[in-house]
Amino acid sequence: MTNPPNPYDPRPPSGSQPYPQQYQQYPMQPYGAQYPMQPYGYGYGPPPQQEQGMAVASLVCSLVGILFCLPAILGIVFGHIGYSKAKRGEAGGQGMAQAGIIIGYVIVGLWLIPLLLWLFFGLAVLGSAGLR
User: Fold this and answer.
1) Could you count the other beta carbons within 10 Å of the beta carbon of residue 60?
2) Residues 74-98, buried b or exposed e (16+ Cβ, 10 A)?
3) In 3D, which of 106, 102, 108, 38 has the Cα closest to residue 73?
4) 16 φψ region: left (φ > 0), alpha (ψ -120 to 50), beta (else)
5) From start to end of the chain, where are the E strands?
């Protein structure tokens, strides 16, 4: 009794011709041979870099607003300008501008809370002392 041929055996079955050559052999290129150049204007170049200045300014000013309040307000303004430019397709950095807007509003809110509390308690103290 003969065993069935193993389909995973790389050798050809006995009694048959070896597998024919499947790939065509190309002559070797001499050392330093160049491939032919593509015609001018072929394909696409890299996309043009979009301006992200307002978005970067928004994020930086909003983060500096942690130390001083005024830059956070500028960060909000720059963020709205950069966001609207990005929505129109005139500039990039839509996410960065959005982050600058959000951080700017949070920082201004954090600056306003103690300012309003100081103002409220200051007026309350002055009112109770009769110094109005």
Assistant:
1) 16
2) bbbbbbbbbbebbeeeebbbbebbb
3) 108
4) beta
5) none
Tokens of 11: 């050798």
- Of 32, 107, 94, the residue nearest 64 (C-alpha): 107
Among the listed residues 75, 58, 60, the one whose alpha carbon sits nearest the alpha carbon of residue 109: 75
Cα–Cα distance measured from residue 104 to residue 77, given in angstroms and rounded to the nearest whole number? 9
Residues 6+ apart with CB under 8 A from 80: 97, 101
Please list the ranges in the chain whose pLDDT falls under 70: 1, 10-49, 131-132
Q: Is the dihedral of CA 99, 104, 105, 109 positive or negative?
A: positive
Measured in degrees and rounded to the nearest 5, phi and psi for residue 130 equal 75, 25
pLDDT per residue as tens digits for the range 61-97: 999 999 998 999 999 999 999 999 999 988 889 999 9
